[in-house]
Amino acid sequence: MFYNALSSRERKMFWTPCDAYIIAYQSINAATPMTSFSLFKPQLQQHKHQLMSQSICKIPSTTKQQLRKFRLTPIKQSTTTIPTQIYKINKEQELQLDESLDLENFDDLAEELPDNSPCYILMNYGYTKPDGRFVSPLIGIYWRPDTARGEAKMLYAGAVELFKKEVGCNMWLECSDEDEIPDLKSEIEK
Q1: CA 154 to CA 69: how far, in whole Å?
Q2: Residue 1 lies in a domain
Q3: What pTM does this model have?
Q4: Count of domains forming the chain
């Protein structure tokens, strides 16, 4: 309704990849005046952010398969190690698996992290809750050391939403100092 009432010059100003959503929203709410567009604005901003993240970094199909396999692999209660994967963005700006580890504890993770470059870490951390239930949430950690170059920090910060969306982890944490790593256990087990 509103879109059709615009002149061709005004339509060019309003045309974005999100216009299909606007038109669908208007057709559903044809009786509602365009003032309800403000309710739709957060969804447009989210879509715009996702498009920007996708242009910053790509996730190849092999990496998607590795992520899916890791996410769907069950962890047994008798397991004493923490299955962990470290992902980095390569020079072609593609996310790739850098390392797969079986850690004994969180102190081992601090030793494995790169000193001067950010990365994303996935952990399948299993533990027993105080009520006796065994749970194994998928934990995502965004490692951004203070010593990393500003360009690398910006690249990873721009792609973090894309990674979170692709992984679908149960908990997301951020760390910038190795001293924070041992404290992650208490944060996860809250």
Answers
A1: 28
A2: no
A3: 0.69
A4: 2
